Amino acid sequence: MKNLVLVVGFAAILASCGAEGGDAGVDEPVVTVTSSTTAPEMLAEPVPLLVVAEVGGCYMMGPNCTTTLVMSDGSFGVYRNDPVDVMAVPESLDEAEYRGAVDIADLAHTVAATDFTTLRASLGPGECMACVDGIDYRVRVFTGAGPEDLASVDYEFDEAIAFFAELAEVRRAAAAAGTLELVPRS
Known about the structure:
Blueprint (H helix, E strand, L loop, with lengths): L1 H16 L30 E9 L9 E6 L3 E6 L17 E4 L3 H9 L2 H7 L12 E9 L2 E6 L10 H16 L9
Antiparallel strand pairs: 1-2, 1-5, 2-3, 3-4, 5-6
Helix pairs in contact: 2-4
């Protein structure tokens, strides 16, 4: 991305200098440089698409809840989460307890088509599964309009709804990719 910025900046400098040997007041072609917040496909790096964090019963024996970070290219990492900030993820997938890849074409399409305000309004109330030693989920979806957060304590994660069906598929794929070694309480 830095190379793209340098090339665009250099082109702008050249355009402002005019053609070699040009006379003042002579109309010369104008080079228009446009900027974009999206890098060309060949330069784009994967960005976060989805974060899914477990909270609750997975802490019973020790710090054994996971946070899964899914990137825009389908790669993902599963991390032992921090009970203070379960949505915090390291900068790199290299720090994951285990990694994998999942086909996210359907999820990405569903995320793009979902109006999260309408979705929230249509959902039933969630349940506190952690209140009875179960596991609750917190989800952060990165959309073009910004991050959207949902918690299973607040909203029913109904798999009959396309977004939650896709979310369940991603959770299953992450669970099948590896096993988090249990760490007992110290």
